[in-house]
Amino acid sequence: MLYGIAAAATALLLTALLAAALRFPASRLRLVERRRQREVPLSGGVAVVVVTGSVVGVKEWGSAGSGIGGLLVAGGVVALLGLVDDVWRLRRRVLAAGTAVAAACVVPYGETGVGTGLLAVGWAVGVTFAFRGLDHADGLAGTVGVVTAFGVAACAAIDVLDGVAVLMSVLAAALTGFLLHNWHPARVALGSCGSMSAGFVIALGLVHVRAGFGLGESAGVLFALTALVSADAVLVVLARRLGGRAVLRSAPDHLAHRLRRLGLTVPGVTLLLGFGALSGVLVGVLAHAGWVGGDAVWWVAGGALVIVSALSRVPVYVDRRTVSPQVRAPLRVRNG
Length: 336
Description:
Layout: H1 2-21, H2 23-28, E1 32-33, E2 40-41, H3 43-62, H4 69-88, H5 92-104, H6 109-112, H7 114-134, H8 140-158, H9 162-182, H10 191-210, H11 215-225, H12 227-242, H13 255-261, H14 266-289, H15 294-311, H16 325-328
Antiparallel strand pairs: 1-2
Helix pairs in contact: 1-3, 1-9, 3-4, 3-9, 3-10, 4-5, 4-10, 5-7, 7-10, 7-12, 8-9, 8-10, 8-14, 11-14, 11-15, 12-15, 13-14, 14-15
């Protein structure tokens, strides 16, 4: 308990310091996010990955181990893959294939079975890319990541999975330290390195927590804990398919983009979506603990469906050449 608190506090402080220290080198090396109004150094993702891996790795090295060494290594591989994408813009099929291989290496097949394990791999890839898609507005990916990681940590603590609980707590703390520089107006960003690794570790942490439970019950808990990112991904895929656009082509059609079109400020969007993520996470934790039944998860699914349906009606595919700068202003966040 005391180690977990000390580790989280250390991770928060070190990430805040390292993200700030790496801003200038990232700018000099042109490791910047170029799809915003201004170039933002991508030092946040490197800081989160390095600090999380170091703090948790010290515990693993200094003790008998808690079985999460493989998850740390796989998360590092995904982070490296994301860093390469930040520098050279890899094809998304390459990112997906690499993420799938990393996930397949750490799924606990002994508890899930091969069939369910392969489903878990596909789900983990989807969550990883959904978190990557959230990294287009100041504070959004970090806020949702903090909320979700704490939720997974709570589930792990309930089952006395100390290794996963510490990993998630440290990740949440590191993302909090990153948010000190990423709140609007952002001075650093996560990039694919940070967002993909965070999504990957959260997804596989959830798989480890729910391994051994029934498939249907686990699917409900996993959905509730990742309801916000799932709703965002579903909305984007449906909108692009129905709009005749390529699913993998970036566009300003995420939840945050649509809320901005409705007049909300960037901090307002982040707080609103963060509250939405928190609502789903609370239900997921309570369902995992057995304190609420499956009906509560259906309420989360219904709420997500209503939100997706309502926001899908907000027009986002506009010809920028035919609208004024005042109308374009709400779209000035990174397309995902």
